Amino acid sequence: MSLGIQEHRVVHDEDIRIERFIKGVHLVTSSAWRNGRGAATGGVGMMLTKEAYGAISLIKSYGCRVLLISFNGNPRLTLISVYSPTEAATDEEAEDFHNTLRAAIHDVPAHQLLMVVGDLNAHLGKS
Fold first, then answer.
1. CB-based contact 8:49 (threshold 8 Å)
2. How many other CB atoms sit within 10 Å of the CB of residue 15?
3. Distance of alpha carbon 5 from its chain centroid, rounded?
């Protein structure tokens, strides 16, 4: 079992950090970042059971907003955890995010199961 996590706000130097907790639960994260005021913001990750962690075949960070983890199985499953910029972001930030997400999705072979999970900061209904 896996749980996608967004906005964990933990800044670290590693591209990918793996922490082990009780009962074999693992937290895999890409780093958050510091905003203009120095506050930690963003960051994505996944909380994994012992069994899920043992089935990992690939972990790849696409920066601080997109994290991909593939699991052995038949068929192979790939989860992509994302944190999309809010509507307050610049057009360039939004385009960069969408291009990064497209690249991550493109890297997943068509015969694998793919799930994109996360905070897409979508708005529904009238503005």
1. no
2. 14
3. 7
For residues 82 and 75, give the distance between their C-alpha atoms in angstroms, rounded to a whole number.
Answer: 22
pLDDT in tens, the chain (127 residues): 788 888 888 888 999 999 999 888 999 999 888 888 998 888 999 999 999 999 999 999 998 899 999 999 999 999 999 999 988 889 999 999 999 999 999 999 999 999 999 998 877 766 6
SS3 string of 47-112?
Answer: EECHHHHHCEEEEEECCCCEEEEEECCCCCEEEEEEECCCCCCCHHHHHHHHHHHHHHHHCCCCCC
Q: pTM of the predicted model, to two decimals?
A: 0.90
**CA separation for the pair 18, 102 (Å, rounded):** 25
Strands 113-119 and 26-29: unpaired
Question: Tokens representing 45?
Answer: 């990750």
Any residues with CB less than 8 A from the CB of 49 and at least 6 apart, and which?
Answer: 1, 2, 24, 25
